Amino acid sequence: LVATNFKMKLQCLVATLCLGVGAIAGKYSREVNEPKPSGSDEQTVEFRISKLNQVWEKAKRMQLPPVRQAELHSDLKIQEKNELQWKKMKVEGLDENGEKEAQLRRNFNVILAKYGMDGKRDARSLESNSLKDHESKDGDVFDDPKLDKLWNKAQISGKFSSDELQSLKREFQHHKDKIHEYNILMDTVSRTEEIHKNVISPLEGDAKEDALQRKHTELKEKMRDLNHGFERLRKISHEGFTEDSEFREPRVIELWEAAKRTNLSDDELDSLKEELRHFETKVEKHSHYQEQLELSHQKLRHVETLGDEEHIKRNQEKYNTLAEKTREMGYKMKKHLQDLSQKISRQGLQHNEL
């Protein structure tokens, strides 16, 4: 009887322990921390980080244009990847000075500002959407006097075919976007400096001084890249494209120009050139999907006005599939861009140190 009682108590204890372990495992399981699959009863969660989900839900409420929304999704996926990597670093005792954490916070603020979700009104977008006193010229599309003047000269120069003008226009638009990003970063640094003025602790002040110094260095590098970019646009606008132009996509051209400034050997440049060609194919494919997504959205809006439920459902499904594919390709393209940028930056540093 004693043996039987002991056995029953032991079984109860084992059962209790199993329940406890199951609860702990449930708390940290992949199912709990990762997004729920679509088709489940509960609402699908896009991201594993709460604040990123909040931004995504807000973007959907704002009804951003489809291509813009897909771009935001890709940017948030990149931010998620970087933040999850940082959390792993932190557990391993790395990033002691908080430099990586500060950079992630800055990147997040840039995303909010880039998509008009930081609570501020963007003067550039207001200007571009407002009625102008004078009749706008076809070339006044960049909301920047220097860019518009250069673009108008290029258009009437007779040095470009229609395809070349389209390629050049993409470069101008890319440069405009880079200026916008620079202004956002500069604003972020300015706000950080305001906070820095109110620091009381000398030790904390020293740490923040270092952080500000790094941000100013980043600003200088971005300004240098902007100057290089504008000089390239100025040269092409005056001289036209050369026959040995290596690439067509602005982001790829920017990487190639940066690589040539690193004094890499001919063999290293040839290897990188091949990798950039593959990347350019990826960029062009992503651009094609963006165009198809915009067309699909226009068709869906048109079908919705007709009121045929079955027709609407079919077009909605096509649109959803295309949007998902565009987001996925955008993420892969931006991740590849990030990897290439870091690779070129590291190689440049290594050669500069020699």
TrEMBL record:
Identification of the protein by name: LDL receptor related protein associated protein 1
Gene Ontology CC annotations of this record: cis-Golgi network; endoplasmic reticulum-Golgi intermediate compartment; endosome; plasma membrane; rough endoplasmic reticulum lumen
Matching SUPFAM superfamilies: RAP domain-like
Gene3D superfamilies assigned to the protein according to its UniProt record, in alphabetical order: RAP domain (1.20.81.10)
Any GO BP: negative regulation of receptor internalization
Domain Alpha-2-macroglobulin RAP C-terminal, residue spans: 141-354
Source organism per UniProt: Nothobranchius furzeri
Pfam family of the protein (one): Alpha-2-MRAP_C
Gene: LRPAP1
Transmembrane feature ranges: none
InterPro entries, A to Z: A2-macroglobuin_RAP, Alpha_2_MRAP_C, MG_RAP_rcpt_1, RAP_D2, RAP_D3, RAP_sf
GO molecular function: heparin binding; lipase binding; low-density lipoprotein particle receptor binding; receptor antagonist activity; very-low-density lipoprotein particle receptor binding
Record keywords, A-Z: Signal
Domain named Alpha-2-macroglobulin receptor-associated protein: residues: 11-122
Signal peptide segment: 1-26
Coiled coil location: none
